[in-house]
């Protein structure tokens, strides 16, 4: 059973992760508009049918950000590659850069795009995580989130400004992978900061 103090310490961390995830979605969606593959700009209005996507991304970010430190504690792992908030900010900057690169870089085919973004995403993991559990979690996040996104698009629940599903299949797994690493990094640092504050 979860102790009351632990439960209350999860609430502010969860709220912070929810806000970060929601804001990330809005910002990264706007970056993708440059390539005309993002969700419609009407998504940002309260009358849009897809108003729920940003809060859903916030919820997923919360789950991911809380799951990483939980798995670390369960496995008894500590990470030397995440010393402070400046490291987390660099991770966020590179994650945004990967997303921006997916919108700006032009390639002859989608395989080159996939391989380039995959290499960048694995590089992000190598720089800021390097744990097996972090890699496996990010990989699972990428697979599950990509499948969910494609199901939502194919079922017509979400619609994109331009039907370029080949492009989506090329870049979205890497974006979700690097997003998992980034939210895990934020979640770990929030957990570490909370622990230091208690001590």
Automatic annotation (TrEMBL):
Tagged with keyword Transferase: no
Residue ranges crossing the lipid bilayer per the database entry: 12-31, 51-75, 111-128, 135-155
Key word Nucleotide-binding present: no
GO aspect biological process, one term: SREBP signaling pathway
One GO cellular component, as annotated: SREBP-SCAP-Insig complex
Membrane topology per record: Multi-pass membrane protein
Subcellular location field: Endoplasmic reticulum membrane
Keyword terms, alphabetized: Cholesterol metabolism, Endoplasmic reticulum, Lipid metabolism, Membrane, Steroid metabolism, Sterol metabolism, Transmembrane, Transmembrane helix
Family listed: Belongs to the INSIG family.
Name of the protein described by the UniProt record: DgyrCDS13292
Organism, scientific name: Dimorphilus gyrociliatus
Lineage: Eukaryota, Metazoa, Spiralia, Lophotrochozoa, Annelida
């Amino acid at each position: 059973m979860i102790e009351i103090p632990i439960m209350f310490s999860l609430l502010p961390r969860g709220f912070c992760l929810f806000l970060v995830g929601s804001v990330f979605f809005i910002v990264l969606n706007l970056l993708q508009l440059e390539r005309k593959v993002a969700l419609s700009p009407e998504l940002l209005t309260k009358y849009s049918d897809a108003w729920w996507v940003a809060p859903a991304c916030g919820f997923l970010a919360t789950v991911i950000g809380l799951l990483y430190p939980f798995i670390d504690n369960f496995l008894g792992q500590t990470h030397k590659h995440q010393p402070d908030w400046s490291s987390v900010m660099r991770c966020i900057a590179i994650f945004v850069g990967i997303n921006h690169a997916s919108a700006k870089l032009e390639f002859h085919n989608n395989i080159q795009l996939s391989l380039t973004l995959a290499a960048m995403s694995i590089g992000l993991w190598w720089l800021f995580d390097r744990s097996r559990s972090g890699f496996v979690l990010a990989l699972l996040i990428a697979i599950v989130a990509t499948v969910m996104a494609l199901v939502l698009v194919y079922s017509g629940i979400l619609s994109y400004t331009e039907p370029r599903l080949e492009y989506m299949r090329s870049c979205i797994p890497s974006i979700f992978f690097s997003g998992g690493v980034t939210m895990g990094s934020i979640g770990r640092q929030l957990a570490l900061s909370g622990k230091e504050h208690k001590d």
